[in-house]
Amino acid sequence: MSVHMHRRVLVMVAIGALVGMPILSGLALAGAPPGTTGPDKHVGEAIEHAKSAVSHGKQGHGGAVAEHAGEALKHAQAAEVKSPHLDEGIKHLKEAVEHGKAGHADVATQHAEEAVTHLSEVK
């Protein structure tokens, strides 16, 4: 009788694993922020870093703008998308990095904001 009980438990665990894993992985993907999965993952990451650059810039932290805009730039350049908005976003990110390093937080922030605007239009 004990062997039959163990077999039933083993079968139930196996069925639970087969059914539960796809459901759990689907839930994980459903909670992912837009643009952070699939082919435009880099564009989504670039937008998030550019938004962080804007946030820091509004606090007057030029160095942090340069740091986050630099990370955004890496992701934007790695994106496998052809778009004039991506090209414009990259130009503004480069300017944000340059001005942030020079301590011009206000100008760097303006460029980071422009980058967010353009990157958000990438399809």
Report what the structure shows.
- With 123 residues, the protein is mainly α.
- It has 2 domains: 1-31; 41-120, Four Helix Bundle (Hemerythrin (Met), subunit A), CATH 1.20.120.660.
- It is 80% helix and 0% strand.
- The chain has 5 helices and no strands.
- The chain has helices at 2-30, 41-58, 62-78, 84-101, 105-120.
- Helix 2 (41-58) packs antiparallel against helix 3 (62-78), helix 3 (62-78) packs parallel to helix 5 and helix 4 (84-101) runs antiparallel to helix 5.
- The protein is elongated.
- The N and C termini lie far apart (61 Å).
- The model is unreliable at 27-32 (pLDDT under 50).
Structural topology:
Elements: H1 2-30, H2 41-58, H3 62-78, H4 84-101, H5 105-120
Helix pairs in contact: 2-3, 2-5, 3-4, 3-5, 4-5
Strand content: under 5%
Q: Which topology of the largest domain does CATH recognise?
A: Four Helix Bundle (Hemerythrin (Met), subunit A)
Globally, the shape reads elongated
Q: What is the correct CATH architecture of the largest domain?
A: Up-down Bundle
Query: What is the chain-wise order of helices and strands?
Result: HHHHH
How far is the N terminus from the C terminus? 61 Å
What's the domain count?
A: 2
Report the uncertain regions: 27-32
Nearest-integer average pLDDT: 83
Q: What is the CATH first-level class name of the largest domain?
A: Mainly Alpha
Query: Helices and strands: which structural class?
Result: mainly alpha
Taking the sheet with the most strands, its summary is: none
Radius of gyration: 22 Å
**What's the CATH superfamily of the largest domain, by name?**
IL-4 antagonist (De novo design) like domain
Overall number of strands: 0
Q: What is the helix content?
A: over 70%
**Number of helical regions:** 5
